[in-house]
Structure formats: C-alpha cells, structure tokens
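Quick one, tokens below. Sequence please?
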C-alpha cells in the first residue's frame, strides 16, 4: 500500500533573518495551528493512511492496557501530530486517555530515560491548555525534577540512560536523546527556554561520547555489557536525528541558532542520506553495513520524519526531497492489510540492547509494535504536502 508521490507546491519566499523563510512558515512568520496543518496537506493520501493506522491502533490498544514507556510514547506522539493536522478530536482524546490511565493507576514512576519519555504527552496537553486539574503539569514537573536532581550523570554531565539505577554505572545511550528530547524541546519552546539550553548541553555531551568521524552515532558509551562501539544501529541514529531536527526547529521558531548542534546534526544528515538503500528507500538495521541483516521499518520511518522536519525548517537542502519520497514509498511497501482491510505495519525490529554484530542481527522483526506504528505515522504526516523536487523558483 504505497501512497502516491506528493504534488509540487511553492515554498514561502519572504526572507527571515536574511534567509528564505522555511517551507512551514506562512507570510514569513512561524506557523500557527492553521498554517501548520495546511503545510501538511490534511487531505493527502499520506495523511489518510496515517489516519487508518491510528484508527486501527486505537481499536487494538486501549489506553489502560498500555505501559508508561518509550514504546507507547512514539505511538502517542504520532497520534498527537496527526491530531494537529487532521483536527480529529478522537486522536487528542486517545492521548489524553493514555495519560489519564497512568494517573488513575497511581501516577507514573519516572526513573529512567525511557519512563521520562511519556511526560512529553502530558506537556503537550498542558501547552494546549488542556489541564483543568493540574495533574498533567504535575507529571511535567516530576519529569523535570528527575532530569535536574534524580537521574545519575556521567563525569561529563551526561544523563544516565538508566536514570536513578546505578548498578551498571552511568551510561549514555543514544536513545536518551529522543526520550528526554521531546519534553525538553517542546517545554522549552513553549514555557521555559532554559530547558532548550539543558537539552543543547546534553546533545553536545552525547555527541562527544557517541558520534564517530562518519557522522553516525554508536549505541552507547559506558555500558558494561559486551558491545562493539564501531557499529551503527539504525534506530539509535534515527532517535538522534529526529530529536536533533525537532530541537533545531524550536530554535529557528524562536529566531535563534545553535551552530554546535547544527553541525552535529548536519554530519549525521549527510551520513544517513548516503546510507539509504536506494532500491527499497529504507535503511539497514546496521545502517553503515548494507546487505547485512535486514532493512528495518521503524528506523526508516524515523529517518524520513527527521529529514522531512529538517527540510521544512531549512536545516536540510533540497537533495533530501527525493530520499524522503523514496522512503515513504518504501514504507508503503511495509504496510499490508489485515483480514478486515485495516493497515498493519510490518518489519519492525524489537527492543534492542547495545551489543555486538550478532546480537543486533538476531533481534527479530515483528509486526504492529506501537513504536513502529507511531514512527510510520510521524513519517507520513511530516512528509505529506512536501514538494516532489525543489520548490518553484529555486
């Protein structure tokens, strides 16, 4: 089930700080809600497919049955972004019900990067003015307290992926850049700019420990288990790229620049674009070792999302557009219909520890994992409405 290629459409041409306004801007200004949705073409085939995926997920995964964890966060973030574009109330209701279920169960315990990730969803509700009791703000405050005071840190100040748990020592996992980045970026953008500074510092620390000369990231540093630090695990690199581009978007919206993080992300952009498997449009699970193992859905979707978001805000040049389109077509090939004619996402690698070549390649592929579905929804929504080539006049 492959969505058709997007139609060419012009970008805004009004200059902002001496540069052409990003594609997402309307009349030279950062997008308001209507502009944000329009730039993603709510009536497109990509958004229609994203809606079908979300509808199936909502039916199959009642909020009260879902854990407070990173896997579910990616699904909920995809549904939240779909709500921004479609305006469909049931998508926002699903995210709210997920957070409410965690509160009803006694409140979420935030003790690791992975359990910090869903606090982003509470923050989005607060930012939207949907917090009559203050319960969602309490989750945000608890997550920020965890980041400020409870999570262990490495000697360089990097946040321990396992948070308060010190029995393995303090280790940096590239996953954390996404798991803490959503909250710090969106809360920093909307309510507390100092949180953007905290995330900037963490991004630089993580890159110093994990990014290689090839521009790609190792999975972890300081992890005591057996690990080959020369390997480049695709979903890990996708976590970093997606989070980095969203952070740079927030800075651009505020009229700010961050040359250090921009350079880190640009190096990864170049490596990721070069590593795409052109025939399939996807990426290998060991991203720098084509032909080894398998092409993987969730990482490919997150790369497409990251590149599309980067292009929308002027961080990635027009050469990325064909790569994004190839990825969306490739992801369409990973979606099949179930017996009821509803779309199912296939080819998602399971949860993955830092490890060796053999351990990465042994991670099984599964269908319908929440983070894989959410990643594909993010990619479909963010790529919808993009031009098929350089915008008119450029």
């Amino acid at each position: 089930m492959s969505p058709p290629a997007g139609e060419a459409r012009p970008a805004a041409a009004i200059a902002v700080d001496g540069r052409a306004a990003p594609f997402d801007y309307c009349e030279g200004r950062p997008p308001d809600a209507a502009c944000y949705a329009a730039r993603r073409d709510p009536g497109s085939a990509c958004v229609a497919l994203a809606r079908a995926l979300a509808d199936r997920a909502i039916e199959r995964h009642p909020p009260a049955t879902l854990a407070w964890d990173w896997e579910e966060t990616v699904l909920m973030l995809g549904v939240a972004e779909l709500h921004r574009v479609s305006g469909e109330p049931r998508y926002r209701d699903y995210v709210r019900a997920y957070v409410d279920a965690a509160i009803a169960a006694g409140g979420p315990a935030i003790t690791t990067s992975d359990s910090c990730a869903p606090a982003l969803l509470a923050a989005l509700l607060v930012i939207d003015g949907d917090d009559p009791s203050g319960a969602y703000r309490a989750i945000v405050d608890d997550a920020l307290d965890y980041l400020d005071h409870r999570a262990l840190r490495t000697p360089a100040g990097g946040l321990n992926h396992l948070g308060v748990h010190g029995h393995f020592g303090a280790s940096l996992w590239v996953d954390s850049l996404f798991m803490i980045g959503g909250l710090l970026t969106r809360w920093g953008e909307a309510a507390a700019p100092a949180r953007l500074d905290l995330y900037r510092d963490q991004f630089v620390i993580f890159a110093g420990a994990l990014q290689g000369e090839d521009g790609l990231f190792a999975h972890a540093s300081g992890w005591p288990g057996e690990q080959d630090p020369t390997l480049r695990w695709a979903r890990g690199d996708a976590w970093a790229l997606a989070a980095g581009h969203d952070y740079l978007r927030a800075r651009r919206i505020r009229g700010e620049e961050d040359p250090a993080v921009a350079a880190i992300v640009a190096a990864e952009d170049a490596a990721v674009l070069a590593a795409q498997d052109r025939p399939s449009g996807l990426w290998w699970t060991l991203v720098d070792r084509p032909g080894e193992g398998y092409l993987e859905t969730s990482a490919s979707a997150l790369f497409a999302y990251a590149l599309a978001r980067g292009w929308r805000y002027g961080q990635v040049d027009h050469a990325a557009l064909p790569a994004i389109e190839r990825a969306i077509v490739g992801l369409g090939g990973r979606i099949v219909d179930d017996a009821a004619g509803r779309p199912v996402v296939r080819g998602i690698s399971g949860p993955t520890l830092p490890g060796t070549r053999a351990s990465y390649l042994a991670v099984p592929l599964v269908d319908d994992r929440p983070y894989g579905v959410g990643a594909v929804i993010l990619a479909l929504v963010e790529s919808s409405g993009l031009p098929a080539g350089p915008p008119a006049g450029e």
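Residues 112 and 118 are 11 Å apart (CA to CA). The two ends are 32 Å apart (CA to CA).
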